[in-house]
Specification:
It contains two helices and eleven strands. The chain is mainly beta. An eleven-stranded mixed beta barrel has the order 1-2-3-4-5-6-7-8-9-10-11.
């Protein structure tokens, strides 16, 4: 009887350890987001947005999420931009890595409006976004909707270096209202006239978890109008 009891106790300890490890979310780990953004003018009032993000639970390993996004921008004026676009997202929702695990897939449609203004040397950007999210978890699917608002401030230090800050609130349009809040600060540098890099810190807060993330972003915004005109001439 004692031997059975001891075995049961050992089994319970092992199970509790496994369950505890399986439920670890990685909150105490520094993760990282490696990102590319592009805005390329193709006409006087139109540009194409391209974006790729590789997100990890740890700085150089433990895959969390792949995000690919594109959109068509309409420049109403230099300080107002309307966008419609599409995103594909593949997500590993668990910190622990299991063999043959299935990542969730998301197809996302979004509508966006950006307003810009300047106060002294501070450049402000207000971004309003609506998202329709079509989620596939492997065995189940779901459709969700949410709204996002981001206020961003950029402050030039020199002709080359600048500071960038933003706060973004995610609002669910079903179930619990609060989705997440992202607070970000970074140092940036202009590499060329149409490219720059930012290195910063993101505090990503959910209802029951907070994640610290290193962010490295590369921005490349060449004007492609000359290329399209050249192709048009060659084709005539």
């Amino acid at each position: 009887m004692k031997r059975i009891s001891k075995r049961v106790t050992t089994l319970l300890v092992v199970l509790s350890t496994v369950i505890g490890n399986a439920q670890e979310t990685g909150e105490d780990k520094w993760g990282a987001w490696y990102m590319y953004f592009g805005t390329n003018k193709i006409a006087e009032r139109f540009s194409v947005h391209t974006e790729a993000q590789f997100r990890f639970y740890e700085t150089t390993s433990n895959f969390n999420q792949l995000l690919l996004r594109t959109g068509l921008n309409y420049h109403i004026n230099p300080n107002a931009i309307a966008t419609g676009g599409y995103g594909f997202i593949s997500t590993d929702g668990t910190f622990e890595e299991f063999p043959n695990e299935t990542n969730s897939k998301e197809h996302r449609i979004f509508e966006q409006f950006i307003l810009k203004n300047k106060v002294w040397e501070f450049l402000f950007e207000h971004r309003y976004r609506l998202e329709q999210r079509f989620l596939d978890f492997g065995e189940t699917t779901d459709t969700q909707h949410r709204a996002r608002y981001r206020i961003q401030m950029t402050f030039p230090l020199t002709d080359t270096f600048f500071l960038n800050f933003y706060d973004e609130l995610f609002i669910n349009l079903q179930d619990d209202l609060f989705g997440q809040n992202r607070l970000y600060g970074a140092v940036g540098a202009h590499i060329t006239e149409n490219s720059s890099i930012q290195v910063g810190y993101l505090r990503n807060q959910f209802a029951n978890a907070v994640y610290d993330r290193l962010q490295i972003g590369f921005f490349y915004n060449p004007d492609l109008r000359g290329l399209f005109k050249k192709q048009g001439v060659d084709g005539d």
